[in-house]
Amino acid sequence: MTRGPLRVALDQGTGHSGDPADALDRLADRAKVAADAGVRLLIGPEMSLTGYNLGPDTVSELAEPDDGPLSRAVASIAADTGVAIVHGFPERADGAVYNTVQLVGADGTRLAHYRKTHLFGDLDRDVFTPGSVQVVQADIEGLRVGLLICYDVEFPENVRAHALAGTELLLVPTALMLPFTEVCDRLVPARALENQIHLAYVNRCDTEGDLRYAGRSVLVAPDGSETLRAGPEEQLLIGEVDPEAITRTRAEQSYLRDRCPELYRSLTS
């Protein structure tokens, strides 16, 4: 059976850093705009509800359980607008704080929960505990989506694991700072191409302390072409993900089919 395209929005923008109430107000507005445009899935940046470069003390103060007030508020926004939402926040669990993203469905039900596994320098390591689950997935209107966070996508093993597990659209909330634009401009399209999947890389574009974020969010198709591309400023990008594009691309030549796993065992030994 042929599946139709999924209309998605990449929300390259955030509320005021350190102000979750402002972030929620802004998200409610963006979700309404997205719903009016027929969007079914809205993806925000890394730590979209709180800010990212806040320091250990502030992050600890803002951290809450995965079913805390912030997540409940997002679930309400999703249910009110009929748009599934990916949001990021600091999660407190088991005596630790994680850099987490959650996906809630269009009815407000939590569908997926992922903790960042690859921590970036002292910026992450001074604040967060790494997650331990590599592949987290959910279905949105018949499309298998997966979650990673920022630095995770820079490790090819992570994206390949998703492709092997059947992820069709990989969602990557991000806080990529300048001057590292080669990641969003070159590496991310290569990840989509080498795994022949759709990949939504949604970056911050604000400034926090000494960090200036690069923006340049992108939605990449399975052939490596750019379906959507933002500039450095706040934008709401809207486009479509065609599940059949994966089938067409892999029918011509499939990296997954042509792999030789027996040659790669030394890479993880």
Report on this model:
By secondary structure, the protein is α/β, with parallel strands linked by helices. It has a single domain, classed as 4-Layer Sandwich (Nitrilase/N-carbamoyl-D-aminoacid amidohydrolase). It contains seven helices and 14 strands. The chain has helices at 20-36, 56-62, 69-81, 121-125, 156-164, 181-195, 244-252, and strands spanning 6-12, 41-43, 84-93, 96-104, 110-115, 137-140, 143-147, 169-174, 198-203, 207-208, 211-212, 218-220, 226-229, 235-241. The strands form three sheets. It has a six-stranded mixed β-sheet. Strands 6-7-8-9-12-13 form a six-stranded mixed β-sheet, with helices on one face. A hairpin with a 2-residue loop joins strand 6 (137-140) and strand 7 (143-147).
